[in-house]
Amino acid sequence: MMSFPAVLxxxxxxxxxxxxxxxxxxxxxxxxxxxxxxxxxISFSIxxxxxxxxxxxxxxxxxxxxxxxxxxxxxxxxxTGAIALVLAPVARQYGVDYLVATVLLGGVLQxxxxxxxxxxxxRFLPRSVMVGFVNALAILIFTAQLPYLTDxxxxxxxxxxxxxxxxxxxxxxxxxxxxxxxxxxxxxxxTVAAGIAxxxxxxxxxxxxxxxxxxxxxxxxxxxxxxxIAPYAIAMALVGxxxxxxxxxxxxxxxxEHSDKTRESWGQGIxxxxxxxxxxxxxxxxxxxxxxxxxxxxARTRLSTFLAGVFLLILVVALxxxxxxxxxxxxxxxxxxxxxxxxxxxxxxxxTLRMMPKSETAVMLATVVVTVATHNLAIGVVVGVxxxxxxxxRRVAHLVNIDSVLDPDGGTKIYRVTGQLFFASSNDLVFxxxxxxxxxxxxxxxxxxxxxxxxxxxxxxxxxxxxxxxGSSVSITGMNESSKQRHAALAGRLGGEH
Length: 498
Known about the structure:
Blueprint: H1 4-12, H2 20-48, H3 52-69, E1 77-78, H4 81-94, H5 96-115, H6 127-143, H7 154-173, H8 179-194, H9 223-255, H10 261-277, E2 284-285, H11 287-296, H12 302-317, H13 320-323, H14 328-342, H15 350-355, H16 358-374, H17 377-397, E3 401-406, E4 412-421, H18 423-426, E5 441-451, H19 454-469, E6 473-477, H20 481-490
Parallel strand pairs: 4-5, 5-6
Antiparallel strand pairs: 1-2, 3-4
Helix pairs in contact: 2-3, 2-4, 2-11, 2-12, 3-10, 3-12, 4-5, 4-9, 5-9, 5-10, 6-14, 6-16, 6-17, 7-8, 7-14, 8-14, 9-10, 9-11, 11-14, 16-17
Membrane topology: Multi-pass membrane protein
Main location: membrane
InterPro entries: Membrane-Transporter-like, SLC26A/SulP_dom, STAS_dom, STAS_dom_sf
């Protein structure tokens, strides 16, 4: 037992993140992430059809707020492409004020869903869907870099190659400074000193020169406004939560730490409400920047997330002229390394593909193909879950067996049913009995089976009806307690005779 003074000293000791080594890691990680956020936020603003400053301010407020409210330490939330795609029609048809109103309503919905426990639905995501999500994400991160590598001077390719070489080789020498930060600084200094003309961050859009100002959107508080923004707010809430929770699960696996998914859910809502209040375009967790923070830079605390937002604001407002000189080639190299590190190469190894059940591989591929085709992770995950459910139901449906035994006196026949009885497996149950040739007494033994739904009860009703029409009596025996309760509640009440 620790003495009271020892306990007091332990409680009053400084947090882990204040140790010099951890603090250095968190600060440098936040700086690298901030640099990587700038071109992404500008690009996503263009996708949403708004001023780049709206995306940059959204990334600042999302990162700072989620560092305090989120349930997953070291995860980065900011303006994202998925949210930009959802909100683009609002901005295009109704203007920025309606977009901001949508963000505010979407944040409220996320907070409500979080408090209602929507995070618990994550347990229904199969591993094959998760692998497909990760692989699709890696592909999307890589393909998002291709426009920066098309119709550009040859020197861009040389710079990307040098940046990749630095990020691969430097960690073998030292991990004191994040390799992505070294690559960004070195390539920027080289291009400026040598006067090499290549696309830069400044070419992507205007950087803000002032701080964001809080306020409410100028929209009429009417039911018509709600009718306009509600569908987009619902879509934003669901897409944002799905991406954030799946990213949190991925980081859990990388860090071997459990995160509070419920807190992360309502924390995302609070972050979007704050972002909307400051006129931002909303967002959610960012897998690419999170991987830079957690995997490439080794960050593990909320400090890195908080500093990513703070550094972002400082860089674009106070040091905008310096940031504008960063060559896009440096940031492209960082994101290529992120995509390579994110992809689950083990999942596509020939030995793994031979060992893995074909249904698992099909689910993974379906998730990847749909996500890459739609550029929407939420749609890909939903399709993957549906495919996994259908294949699982189909597989389980074939695990129902029916054996029959005729008593020596020939007056009773016993059918023993084993397996899981639900809509997929019980649809053919009616046709597994020999109604015409069976004796007057029939016993259906369900001691090796489970009744899961109304479809099975309806099938048993149909079997009993067919035997009664031929003058035979049927007894159903051996049901476990849950099956017995379900059968008693529904038998004879489902209507219609088969």
